[in-house]
Design a protein that fits this description.
Helix content is 75%, strand content 5%. It has 6 helices and 2 strands, in the order αααααββα. It has a two-stranded antiparallel sheet with strand order 1-2. Helix 2 packs antiparallel against helix 3 and helix 3 packs antiparallel against helix 4. 27% of the residues are buried.
Length: 161
């Protein structure tokens, strides 16, 4: 790509939306939905009936609202939303160590038999959902950050001309 094509591509950024970052953020929400559907459909005795699950439900609602708001912000090349998406991506990784790890390590008594609250398959699946969600959010943040910097540099060259 020569310099003129690159200049035209950067100039187009002033008029088109940053859909890649926005779509990656929405994909992060989708994998979070897969996570919480898998967790909340589990019904092993009364282990899942706790304040931890209640807090998780509230966090999921706040998470989805914050990511959706951020997806709208990154569409318009707002750099600050990159920081929010990055922080939410880190929190997705931290979440692996809360419910999935505790449920995977826990056992409960069902019909006089000791059973694991979360089997290995479900643990690896929900952990993968959280990791993929975090990766999507991190990618959205990085792409937006790079594109915001490119657009800002381009606008400076236009202002100086």
């Amino acid at each position: 790509m020569n310099a003129d094509e690159r200049t035209i591509q950067r100039d187009r950024m002033r008029f088109i939306k940053n859909t890649l970052s926005s779509n990656l953020a929405i994909l992060g929400i989708l994998f979070d939905v897969f996570y919480f559907v898998s967790i909340y459909q589990s019904d092993v005795d009364t282990w899942y009936y706790s304040i931890l699950i209640g807090g998780s439900i509230v966090y999921n609602l706040v998470f989805m609202l914050a990511v959706f708001l951020s997806s709208e912000g990154v569409k318009n090349y707002k750099k600050n939303y990159s920081y929010i998406l990055g922080a939410l991506g880190v929190l997705q990784i931290v979440r692996i160590f809360i419910i999935p790890m505790k449920a995977h390590a826990a056992t409960t008594l069902v019909n006089g038999e000791t059973v694991s609250v979360m089997q290995d398959g479900q643990f690896f699946r929900v952990s993968a959902y959280l990791v993929i969600s975090a990766a999507c959010l991190a990618a959205a943040a990085v792409v937006n950050f790079i594109r915001c910097r490119e657009l800002s540099e381009h606008l400076k060259t236009l202002g100086g001309a």
